[in-house]
TrEMBL record:
Catalytic activity, as annotated: L-lysyl-[histone] + S-adenosyl-L-methionine = N(6)-methyl-L-lysyl-[histone] + S-adenosyl-L-homocysteine + H(+)
Protein name: Histone-lysine N-methyltransferase SET5
Gene3D superfamilies hit by this protein: 1.10.220.160, 6.10.140.2220, SET domain (2.170.270.10)
The organism of origin for this protein: Grifola frondosa
Residue ranges constituting the SET domain according to the UniProt record: 93-377
InterPro entries referenced in this protein's UniProt entry, alphabetically: SET_dom, SET_dom_sf
Region (Disordered): 56-75
Amino acid sequence: MATSVVSPSADELKSALVDLRAEHPTLGIAKLHELLLSANPFWTVSEKRTRKVLQSEGLTLSPSSAKPSTDGANSIHPSSRIIEGLDIEKWTTKVEVKYFGKTKGKGLVAKESIAAGEILWKEDPFILAPEWDLYDLQMSSLACGYCSTPLTNSPLVIPCPMSSSTTPCPVRFCSRLCLARSGRTHPLLCASQNPASAPLLHFARRNQWMALQALAQCTARVLIAQQQDEKTFSEDWEVVRALAQLGMEERVKSGWLGGAEPDRATWKKAHRIYVQAFQEPATEPEKKRLSKLLKKPLSKDVAHELFDYDRFLSGLGRMSLNLEAHGGLYILHSHINHSCMPNVSVRHLDQRTALSRITVIARQDIAPGEELFITYVNPEQPLDQRRRQLIEWGFGLCKCDRCVAEESETSEATVGKADVDDLEAELKAGLGVM
Ligand SMILES: [Zn+2]
Ligand SMILES: [Zn+2]
Ligand SMILES: [Zn+2]
């Protein structure tokens, strides 16, 4: 029986080529094209078309050599920019922000010699979208609504002061300090003060959609800041806008749709209830409550940046790219780039008092001018899997020292097993399961 030959759709071809590139990071276009055809015998694709897709995905090798260049010029990279006026000395004097150029964006480099084991800084989250087990504890009054630390019977624990018998809010805080800090986001996410936000939070929970929960937190923070003063608002707004992001098209190209995130119909629905939560509640009583919290009108520009559908999607993308493994968004931490052989690690050491606070520690000696790196993927995975995962997340082909070394010496691993075991233990201890 004859089976007809078909021309794959643009999406099919892209995803096949992204996979192939991840498996064969160093092959030239002609070889990759051959592999594509042998893996998909019923496809008809010209080499020219393969080349075009690889080019538009940023997955071609540099023309001068068969090996990927290390400057990252050919990979997809999230764009990011420097946060104007960011005072990093409030966290540390040991590092500084460096802008590496359009492709790579920003990063952190050491300003002085740093010794292995040294604490570089501690940081509380800009916003926190805790892992679901902690979120569930928060929503059942068992973990602090600000820092997510599981609550004890301490007399310091304070229930949400706005909770009422008609519209109860289950959230409690571990101290006055946490209650005060929660004022930057909680009012707009409080079941009592802004009941219109409840469907959004439930929707994020039901779909286990961390980026949506984080975006809800972020939007709440920006809107509340806007009600305060110009300085508070412009600082927060600047932080959000400077976060690394990929355009939606780039995210889709790099396999975002094929990943764990919900499909387009779900995005639409999420957008509708997001707008209902913060801008246009569905019922009159909800509108009234929201208008009590948001008295100052939002400028047209900001409203557009927050609520337009395409901006909402970019917002979700920003969250996905910048959240720490436990769901916090940290201003300084979000500057650290990835390496599969990181020189700093991120821990949650204040487990009893401030679970969401991170401590950034040097894993090894770091010389002045050297860049700081964390790992975004489980470093125990082999080269191909690490690269594939990073490509899927939109970071392009990883060309960190370890990847480049492993690629050229595939017969002999260049990273000791002990180091990998060490990293694995660290991921389990400090970052949870990725
Ligand atoms: Zn707390
Ligand atoms: Zn509340
Ligand atoms: Zn790598």
